Amino acid sequence: MEENATKKRITDETKRLEYMLNGGDVTLKTLRTLSRETQQDILDYLRDCPLYEAVTAANKDYILDCGVAYGNEPTLLRLNDYKEFRL
Q1: Mean pLDDT of 3-21
Q2: Closest by alpha carbon to 63, among 50, 79, 49?
Q3: CA distance 9 to 81
Q4: Which long-range contacts (CB under 8 A, 24 or more apart) does 5-9 make?
Q5: Reduced to 3 states, what is the DSSP secondary structure of residue 84?
Q6: Is the pLDDT of residue 30 over 50?
Q7: What is the mean pLDDT of the chain?
């Protein structure tokens, strides 16, 4: 039981460190300058955002996502490019 808790703690700490190293420190510093109400409004907005959005442009269908599952860069892929993924 204690071993699982230790592994979870290490995983959580690793995620926090990755977040901070990838620009999270700037985000947190800026959020801390805002009122609690504004911070909560921003967090509520982010929680309500979709994980992806399907759009059509120039008669082509695309999926817009943050790219986290497929790399660190934002992605703009046609629906056909998502063959291996089920939405």
Answers
A1: 81
A2: 79
A3: 36
A4: none
A5: coil
A6: yes
A7: 76
Q: How far apart are CA 28 and CA 66, in angstroms?
A: 19
pLDDT over threshold 70, residue 53 = yes
Nearest to 61 by CA among 81, 43, 33: 81
Closest CA to 54 of 42, 64, 44, 46: 64
State the DSSP H helix or E strand holding residue 19, giving kind and residue range, or none if neither: helix 2-19
pTM over 0.85: no
Tokens 């700037």, located at residue:
26
Rounded (5°) CA angle 18-42-19: 0
Residue 16, H or E segment: helix 2-19
Question: Residue type at 46?
Answer: L
